[in-house]
Amino acid sequence: MLPLKKISLKDIAEAAGVSTALVSFVLNGKKKEYRVGEETAQRILKIANEMNYQPNLAAKSLRSGKTKTIGLVVSDISNPFFSQLARVLEDEATKRGYTVLFGSSDEDKDKMNRVVSNLINKGVDGLIIVPCDNSEKSIASLVNNNVPIVLFDRYFPEINVSYVALNNFNASYVLTRHLLNAGYNAPCMVAYDVNLIHMKERVRGYKKAMDDAGKKHLINVIFLKQDTPRKSADRLLPKMIDGGVDAFLFATNMISLSCLYTIKDMGEEVISKIGLVGFDGNPVFDFFNAPISYIQQPIETLVQKALGILIDNIAGGNTVQSVLAEGEFVEITL
Fold first, then answer.
1. Which of 48-57, 78-87, 235-244 is predicted with the least confidence, judged by mean pLDDT?
2. In what residue span(s) does the HTH lacI-type domain sit (predicted)?
């Protein structure tokens, strides 16, 4: 049951038989600095916990200049990858004493700007942002204004800002080689029509693998409209099949889902012969009649790296760090 009144430091001090100052030292992690005995410190912490003490974050932020909150801006919260990102980040941030405030840009730079402004106005200490297309100027402005920031999943090479992402080039290369080694002759890459580095790197990895296999003449990349992927897939995929394509590499989880609807409508004859690979697993894949191998992004590692860099920047560190993590290839067979 929640207490009927807000518990104060004075209440804890009276219950523990110590001064209010001593309680403050312990609850603010300064017991060693002020030489508070371990037995006394543990008694104070136990009483504070029993009384369900909640610190006054507003007052604490005024004293320290920090709110112990960080903002996360993803591009599309409905995307399973970004939903998982939010979940893992919240867990990791809690371990470090931070609260996370969330926002989604829905792949719209104007909405991204509004969400970022709202988070800054709420006093977040720093931001982890999955930038959307055409948001370079907004990111550069944050950097120029010394806002602690780490880009996640996507980044802009021309901006001197910390980022954490998958090694997308290598991931795509591995997926393409898997299809070729499995006997498929003419795999096609399905990507979004955006000018973002992660998409470019995935396409580049596919092209490099095809070129290294002596199949440069069979390179095929089709681009779906990000706002209407299913409609684009219905129009483009059948043309590729008719043109000799025998496998598809889907550049994102959401592209996979859109294209699977189209492929399902082509019938069992096509499904039984086609090779499929993509990024990040999805429970939906289990219900499809063809195996879909994929690259699993190391999201926990990526989150821990991003959070560590951000907290370091919040503390005053100004070193720009770039992290590219390797994904894990997960082979699925029926």
1. 48-57
2. 7-64
Residue 182 contacts residue 275 (beta carbons within 8 Å): yes
Domain map (residue ranges) of the chain = 9-55, 65-165+299-325, 168-296
Q: Identify which of 63, 56, 59 has the alpha carbon closest to the alpha carbon of residue 8.
A: 56
CATH topology of domain 168-296: Rossmann fold (3.40.50)
Instruction: State residue 281's pLDDT score.
Output: 83
Cβ count within 10 A of residue 18? 18
Contact 130, 75 (CB under 8 A): yes
- Region of poorest pLDDT, from 55-59, 116-120, 316-320: 55-59
Q: 252-272, pLDDT tens digit by residue?
A: 999 999 999 999 999 899 999
Asked whether 294 and 278 are in contact (CB, 8 A), the reply is yes
Type of residue at 61: S
The Cβ of residue 325 has, within 10 Å, a number of other Cβ atoms equal to: 15
CATH 3.40.50.720 fits 65-165+299-325, yes or no: no
The secondary element (H helix, E strand) that includes residue 119 is helix 109-121
The predicted model scores a pTM of: 0.79
- Residues in contact with 296: Cβ distance below 8 Å, sequence separation at least 6, in sequence order: 280, 281, 327, 328, 329, 330
Could you tell me which residues come within 8 angstroms of residue 52 by beta carbon, excluding any fewer than 6 positions away?
Answer: 2, 3, 7
Which has the closest alpha carbon to 214: 248, 180, 189? 180
Distance CA 223, CA 131 (A): 20
Q: Are strands 99-104 and 162-166 parallel, antiparallel or unpaired?
A: unpaired
Strands, E assignment, 136-266: 149-152, 162-166, 187-192, 221-224, 247-250
**pLDDT tens track for 22-79:** 887 788 777 776 678 888 889 988 998 888 776 655 455 444 557 899 999 999 888 8
Report the C-alpha gap between 122 and 164 in whole angstroms: 25
Under CATH, what is the fold of the domain 9-55? 434 Repressor (Amino-terminal Domain) (1.10.260)
